[in-house]
Amino acid sequence: MPLQLAEVSNEAEFADVVAVEHEAFSNPPNSFWFALRGPSIAECTARQWAEHTTDPKSHWLKVTDSDTQQIAGAAQWVIHETDPFATPVPAATADWWPEGELKDMSNQMMTEFFSHRPHRMNRPHLRNMIGYCFVSQHHRRRGAGRLLMQWGCKLADEMGLEAFVEATEDGRPLYESSGFVVVERFYLDPKVEEPTEEWTRLKKEIVPQPYLVYLMWRPKGGKFVEGQTVYS
Description:
By secondary structure, the protein is of the alpha+beta class. Helix content is 36%, strand content 24%.
């Protein structure tokens, strides 16, 4: 059952990708995905496709099992040939959720997640967008994640660019095997001074404990030498 890598070419293909995205991020549960996924798969598909098609720097890749035609995994890479933060970027908000505590919690997590980018990624680079790299639980340990990483790393090397990813503990080994190193650790841990019963319920369901995220960096050429290669 060989795996094939290709760019996503239309919205119908992308709908299948987002279905796998929902399945993959539910096992193991990804706390940040709860903030991003929105109220339905249809809404999530339309929103992510619109974001992709209006950004010429965006590339969505999928890996397909050539025998079954099932999507094994997918990833989004965004190419920044200039500093994307040269002009201030508005704060991201979870406007796909209705007003309420779920939206408030999601907004807090998004602030915590994105706050490092303007001072860490303020240079030309390739980025695995918002950690959008996932593999179906039915196709793990087959090399799909490696194919998705190889595409981005090869392009970064050809363009002479650094690369960044934001990784969970589960994804970290894949990125390390692709030449990424940890440069920062941060936690998603939304809080309010006087939590309501609903806030407490959501916190227990979505972020029962502080959720660790690694900011990882790959130097130009992917050659990191301990004690010699310096991130700055």
